[in-house]
Amino acid sequence: MTDEYFMQLALKQAEQAFEEDEIPIGAVVVQQHKVIARGYNMTEKLNDPTAHAEMIALTSAFGHLGAKYLPDATLYVTVEPCVMCAGALYWSKLSRVVWGASDPKNGFSRVQPGISPFHPKTAVTTGVLEAECAALMKAFFMNKR
């Protein structure tokens, strides 16, 4: 089980969002090499600007474990988290955060370049299946124009 394997699962979530005309971002939460939660953007479906893939996956993981912290879990998300999601990830105390494509327009790093918003014990890995993650976003927005 590699980062690429789990990012492929997050991409499947992003494809589900794409099919539902949502911004195609997907996420999975993994603990002990098992997916314990999944999520994709549902802001249009739920009429909720906070219904990002990361938030949906985190809420599902908390419910699955009956806990408010995820110190032994990794979140895989297809696109760099926004400021709101980065805050939720901080409070989740995840072991790792892994994302595919950077988001210079809406990602957290545009607000605080070079500063990690995550918990000090959270490891960060970026660029996993970056081309595939970015291609899905580009295809979505090309269809909108």
Give a verbal description of the structure.
Helix 1 packs parallel to helix 5. It is built from five helices and five strands, in the order H-E-E-H-H-E-H-E-E-H. It has a five-stranded mixed sheet. 39% of the residues are buried. It is an alpha/beta fold and 145 residues long. The protein has a single domain (3-140), classed as Cytidine Deaminase, domain 2. It starts with a helix and ends with a helix. It is 41% helix and 21% strand.
Question: In summary, what is this structure?
Answer:
Keywords: Hydrolase, Metal-binding, tRNA processing, Zinc. It is an enzyme of class 3 (hydrolase). By secondary structure, this protein is α/β, with parallel strands linked by helices.
Counting DSSP E segments of at least 2 residues, the number of strands comes to: 5
CATH superfamily membership: Cytidine Deaminase, domain 2
Count up the helices: 5
Question: What's the mean pLDDT score?
Answer: 94
CATH class, named Alpha Beta
Helix content range: 40-55%
Sequence of secondary-structure elements: HEEHHEHEEH
Pfam families: dCMP_cyt_deam_1
Organism: Niabella ginsenosidivorans
Cofactor: Zn(2+)
Domain CMP/dCMP-type deaminase: 1-111
